[in-house]
Amino acid sequence: MKASMPSTEKARRKGLFTRLGRLFINGLNSFLRNARLHEPNNKAFLQSLNALMVSIEPIFEEDSHASIEVNKDAIFVNEVRVRPDASCSASYRALIIDFNRRGVGGILIKEGCNKQNLIDTARIWRFNEPGEESLLDTLNEQIKEAGAEHFIAFTKPRFIADSEEESMGDPREFALHVYGQAVSYLRGLPRQIAMGKMASARRAKRLVQSFVDLSSRRDFNFTALAVIKNYDEYTYSHSVNVSVLCISFGQRLGLSRSELVDLGMAGLFHDVGKLSVPINILNKPGKFDSGEWQIMKNHSTKGFIKLISMPEFGPAHFKRAIVAFEHHCDYDLGGYPRKSNPRPLHLFSRICAIADTYDAMTSKRIYQPAFSPDQAIKILLEKSGKKYDPLLVRAFVSAMGVYPVGTVVVLDTGEVGIVLEANPYSLSMNRPKVKLVGKSPDDPLLGTVADLTEQDEKGRFKRTILHPADPAFFGIDVAKFLFSDIQTSNSGQGV
User: Fold this and answer.
1) Rounded-to-integer distance, Cα 371 and Cα 282, Å
2) Which residues contact 346 (CB under 8 A, 6 or more apart)?
3) 234-252 and 171-187 helices, crossing angle to 10°
4) Has residue 199 got a pLDDT over 70?
5) What is the overall mean pLDDT for the chain?
6) Structural domain boundaries in the chain
7) For residue 102, what are the CA distances in angstroms to 61, 95, 138, 382?
8) Terminus of the chain with fewer CB atoms < 10 Å: N or C?
């Protein structure tokens, strides 16, 4: 029976291997990528080889081996779970995909491994491209033939229990419940305001904390929640969607958990000033006259005032008030309200402005039809540098993909699919995972998930996107289709 580790030692190893593990993940991913692209005498390959050696040396000082194991969508380094941050998020996802496609659970590198052992491993990895069958046995047989089996081995996939996540049950069901509760909370705010009160934000914070927990789940694409649209309660569902998009984007930027909670709260309350705008102005189908436009523009200032008037307001809550005030100021400060000083906008305001615009454009409004997600991305790029922070826009596009979650696409096979997840490889951003709609209700392919990076035996892609499409043309309710197998009686959302 394995002896339990003292809590202080456990905490020390967790901190140490989180730091060393991120370097190891970056080093291994760079090495394997260069192994596919270059010969062993290539300068880029040799640099990545040296970087990998440097990344594992401090691990050998702690243990007699350095190991990486992929478990679902998580990576464990020497049995310590390493969560990605901005420094390694791309390598993290790329390694998971690479290992999964080859049927490999991980790699074990033992102390004493030299550069030649790694060069042999690179050659073996390069000439064993993924196919239908697991490559685990083939890889290890060839490593043995190269005489490196005492120092390097690829390991089987295995399940590493995570009791915290297992206890949550189906994350999609829980996510829909939290989403519905958040909409319900916002729905009650106008009554509080009409009574001259401002509700406590403690309940909202608990809901946002649940969103942050969901965003780190390995078995749930958190961003998919933002495809939920409610035409009749746009103001409320829009604010929840902005919170979801802010949290998802903030996580990709490497923000800490407490920062993600603050950012999610700012997204949830960014439009609180609109709760005082008359409904006939909010839902006006035509252009605003000058008086109506001034009322609409005042929602930023009114939102700031409402938020600093909340019962428990303090320094920690100031960020959400700043975002309510600044989210329409624009990156070049040419928006509204006009600022009396040229101080740059807060990071959260710049993030929220992008999330706010993206969700607004992809939602059906009384005065405009919904843009497709890819159209919204193009508009953000066009206005980058003027209305939106150009660096954040590029990061947002990278996070969402060329075809964001919820995009309906027509494939060259004649099939129609809905994008589930972007591909993290920059060269494969136009090849996401899609959920096939099927050609009829009894089509056996209905609901099948297809990875558009899959190739046939001749190296040709099995499916390719021809173009995005309007969901209404095919009679598709995207949210209902993505969450069709979930019971939503408690969510308050008709998905």
Assistant:
1) 19
2) 319, 322, 323, 326
3) 130
4) no
5) 85
6) 7-155, 170-399, 408-482
7) 30, 11, 10, 39
8) N
Cβ proximity of 183 and 492 under 8 Å: yes
CA distances from 329 to 116, 125, 199, 339 (A): 57, 51, 27, 8
Backbone angles phi, psi at 162, to 5 degrees: -130, 95
What is the arrangement of strands in the sheet containing 65-71, beginning at the earlier edge strand? 80-82, 74-77, 65-71, 106-110, 152-155
Task: Provide CATH code, domain 170-399.
Answer: 1.10.3210.10
Identify any residues that bridge with 77 across adjacent strands, giving them in sequence order. 68, 80
Q: What is the CA radius of gyration of the chain?
A: 25
Q: How big is the CA angle at 141 (ends 138 and 144), to the nearest 5 degrees?
A: 150
Question: Which pTM was predicted?
Answer: 0.66
Tell me the one-letter amino acid at 349: S
Tens-place pLDDT, residues 259-292: 999 999 999 999 999 988 998 898 888 889 999 9
Q: pLDDT tens digit string along 94-151?
A: 898 888 888 888 999 998 899 999 999 998 988 887 665 667 888 888 999 999 888 8
Specify whether the CB–CB gap between 103 and 135 falls below 8 A: yes
3-state DSSP call for residue 393?
helix
CA-to-CA distance for 191 and 413, rounded, in angstroms?
52
Q: For residue 357, give every residue at least 6 positions away whose Cβ sits within 8 Å of its Cβ, in sequence order, or none.
A: 376, 379, 380, 387, 388
Residue owning tokens 């829909």: 176
